[in-house]
Specification:
single chain, alpha+beta, 5-stranded mixed sheet, globular
Length: 367
């Protein structure tokens, strides 16, 4: 690929003038021509209450590096804070009213009876959507450089793009306390909530066709974001089919640690607990359907969901036998769907191998 992040940032900066005009003029989210919510969808604008922190977990996730080391390795991504604008007033269309191609990647969220899809081609220009799903205030986030899509509870605040990266990964900040949060780590590394862990939820990376088939009533994020961007023109490459940065062996920033056990952009399904981290080779998982590994002596099992081309990870401390069969997985005498095994599910998400290997040196890699 001939375009570097710097090239992209330069182009984005040029577009930013138009986008900023949109923010402050009559057509922007703060202007006199403020967009109104679609009929029946209610007011979707996400707002932040000053001083209010995002929800944090009552346990800390394992980190492969000391917080100080992560903080010291934050680098400028070439844009200022909020130079890549989050979407704070998202609008949605019905599944039949979108130009998204069947094979294009989307990031799906289903909770409390509501399903939404966030197309990758839109999020590559924003990285964060502050939204409400199933009545809950959430942030759906995407880092194009590490290929990670993750969800966070946001409470009465919103998240923005800090303009900093670590291990090529998006570093968010919350607008309530201005704490900085590398996305993959979900841990504060600078600011009042340093060392705290965000509350997360699963975001499914799949294709539009697969998500729509699984959730026919889904809504899909539209290009009506309040910003002027060249949606459909991905500065990094393409996912349908995979090309450019998403396929080659280069990274735009030096990883914290390099690990040559796999191609840097190989997609792995990773999980982390309080004790450690573990990755499963996703193409292998989709082919073999069941893979097992361990974290600090506890067995973990990954199962494939062919309908969405994804997988789920469960703690299996008693070593129950999990086998694939027609219609699901056999566990403890019953057959269960991939996302509903009678085991404790460990949050997992897709990512590029170099990102997992860099954040968690020596991480287990099951393939």
């Amino acid at each position: 690929m001939g375009l570097t992040r710097r090239d992209w940032l330069r182009a984005a900066g040029a577009l930013g003038a138009a986008g900023l005009a949109g923010c402050t003029g009559t057509g922007g989210p703060d202007g006199g021509g403020r967009r109104t919510a679609a009929p029946g969808t209610g007011d979707t604008t996400a707002t932040a209450t000053p001083g209010t922190p995002p929800p944090t977990a009552d346990r800390s996730l394992y980190l492969g590096h000391a917080v100080d080391h992560v903080d010291e390795n934050l680098v400028s991504g070439g844009v200022p804070k909020d130079g890549i604008p989050s979407i704070d007033d998202p609008t949605f269309a019905a599944a039949g009213e979108t130009p998204v191609a069947d094979g294009d990647p989307v990031f799906g969220v289903a909770r409390n009876g509501e399903a939404k899809a966030y197309p990758q081609y839109i999020l590559v220009h924003h990285e964060i959507v502050n939204d409400t799903v199933g009545g809950d205030p959430v942030a759906v986030t995407y880092c194009p450089l590490t290929g990670t899509a993750q969800g966070f509870e946001r409470g009465e605040t919103t998240f923005g793009v800090s303009g900093r990266l670590v291990n090529s990964n998006l570093t968010m900040y919350d607008r309530g306390t201005d704490t900085w949060w590398p996305q993959v780590l979900a841990t504060g590394v600078r600011g009042p909530l340093r060392g705290e862990t965000l509350e997360e939820f699963r975001v499914v990376w799949t294709t539009w066709k697969q998500w729509r088939s699984a959730h026919p009533d889904t809504q899909v994020l539209t290009e009506d974001t309040g910003y002027t961007r060249r949606y459909g023109d991905d500065p990094y490459g393409d996912y349908n089919p995979r090309a450019g940065y998403y396929d080659d062996g280069r990274t735009l920033f030096s990883p914290l640690v390099t690990d040559d056990r796999a191609h840097p952009k190989r997609v792995v399904l990773g999980t982390r607990t309080t004790e450690g981290a573990l990755t499963f080779d996703e193409p292998t998982l989709l082919d073999e359907r069941v893979l097992t590994g361990d974290v600090a002596g506890t067995e973990y099992v990954a199962v494939a969901d062919a309908a969405l081309s994804t997988g789920y990870v469960y703690a299996n401390p008693d070593g129950l036998t999990v086998t694939a069969e027609d219609g699901g997985y056999r566990v403890d005498g019953g057959t269960h769907a991939a996302d509903a095994l009678p085991l404790d599910r460990s949050l997992a998400f897709d990512g590029m191998w170099f990102a997992w290997a860099g954040f968690y040196p020596g991480v287990g890699y099951v393939r």
